[in-house]
Amino acid sequence: MRDKTQTNSAGPGDGLIRAGVVVFFLGAVATMVTVAPLFLGRHPFPTYMFGLSMLMAVGFLIAGAGVLRSVAAGRREARGAGR
Residue 61 CB: number of other CB atoms within 10 A? Predict the structure, then answer.
């Protein structure tokens, strides 16, 4: 029997996971840029720049929400197939 899911189909939550990864990496780059002057002996960036580092946490939460959405959809599908 053929599997109904295609290899290139996006499931529920996949978009959130991808968006979370992008936001996380933007936050990681912002963190490296913000911390670099501290190691190089330069003047630190203004305080609001450290707020950009919080994009890592925001991206992590977005990706986590996508994973939870994907798990919930899988459970719903499994419950429906068991009947």
Answer: 14
| Residuewise pLDDT in 10s, the chain (83 residues) | 455 656 667 788 899 999 999 999 999 999 999 989 888 888 888 888 888 889 999 999 999 999 999 999 888 888 887 66
Q: Give DSSP secondary structure letters for the chain.
A: ---SS-TT---TTHHHHHHHHHHHHHHHHHHHHHHHHHHHT-PPPPHHHHHHTTHHHHHHHHHHHHHHHHHHHHHHHHHHHT-
